[in-house]
Every structure is written in structure tokens, then in C-alpha cells.
């Protein structure tokens, strides 16, 4: 199995990013990608758990460097239905007590309706994304128009395996004045859930 090299990420959320956005748009654009995802937030954890393309996707924050860049590491990509062993790992990532499993395995709707929705420590947010990608200094740069449960918000991100290249690109584009905020922080702020 190939070694996973985790990327370093810088990301901001807001309504618009002024001159920085114009700077990004001056570069050639890759194709536009659209997706609808469900993020599952836990009061007890900052692991990034979402469902995209019918896959349970979990990433954990491995480290934060001196520039406050974050390195996220993928720990799970599992398709539905989810068996008990996988569910145990999911609830472990949430640092949440699992309920008694009434089924041998859970399909997508059963998982959300029977395990996530009733759980007092968990909250679902549906996120629709329209992402425009750019390649700048070898970094993946993205401007995305999002909807958090229908509410519009914009995000800009820069990511690459090399943190120095990420910061060089952030500064070149004029983004360093914006707060670096990951998806989990942004979504927890949106729903009023405390950050652990």
C-alpha cells in the first residue's frame, strides 16, 4: 500500500476575500467540482468526519506548525453499509458513547436517522460545495461557494505537502490577513457548538 503523505492546509471562511480573490482568479482555473456532503460534528472531538460519495471519510489533525498551518491525516474511508467494527471506530473518532446497535450493519439513511440524529453529542450539517481549483506554486488553491444547511458562505484554501510552499502562496496571494479556520471550527461556530 502506498504511503500517505498528508497535506498542510490553510483555509479561511467569509463572504468575500477582496484583492486576494482577484489574485487567485488571475491564474488558470481547473474544472469546477460540485458535491453535497454531510459533516457530523461531535461535542467531544475535532476529528473531521463527513460523508461524501457515500463514503464515511475521517481525517484527524496530526499537527499544527509555527505558522498555524494544519496537517490533516486520513484515517478512514469506508463505504455503506457500515458494520459494527467500523461503527466502533467511527464513535471512537467522535469520542462519543456508541448506542446499542440494533442492526448487523447500517446503511446511509439508517446510520444518520438511527445513530447520529438522536445522539446528544452529535450534530449533522449538510454542506453543498461548488469548488473552483487552481494550481499556484505547485499548491492546490481553491475558492468554493458553500451552503451550510442552506446558508451561503465562501471559503478559500491553499494546500500542499510542503508547508513552506503553502505559506509562500498564502502571502503571495494576500491571504495572510484572514484567520486560518478549518471546516470543523467553521461548522461548530455555525451551529453554536463549543470547540474542544
Which SSEs are present, and which pair or pack?
Layout: E1 8-14, H1 18-25, E2 29-42, E3 48-52, E4 55-64, E5 70-79, E6 82-83, H2 84-94, E7 105-106, H3 108-116, E8 122-136, E9 139-148, E10 151-160, H4 163-173, H5 183-191
The tally of beta strands, per DSSP, is 10
Largest sheet: 8 strands, antiparallel, barrel
Report strand order across the widest sheet. Answer: 1-5-4-3-2-8-9-10
Mean pLDDT: 95
Instruction: Identify the overall geometry.
Output: elongated
Helix/strand order, N-terminal first: EHEEEEEHEHEEEHH
**Based on the structure given, which CATH architecture is correct?**
Beta Barrel
List the keywords.
about 200 residues, alpha+beta, 8-stranded antiparallel beta barrel, two-stranded antiparallel ribbon
Polypeptide structure, described:
It is a single chain. This protein is of the alpha+beta class and 196 residues long. The two termini are 33 Å apart. The mean pLDDT is 95. The chain has a single domain, classed as Hypothetical Protein Pfu-838710-001 (Beta Barrel), CATH 2.40.320. Strand 8 and strand 9 form a beta hairpin. An 8-stranded antiparallel beta barrel has the order 1-5-4-3-2-8-9-10, surrounded by 4 helices. A two-stranded antiparallel ribbon has the order 6-7. 24% of the residues lie in helices and 43% in strands.
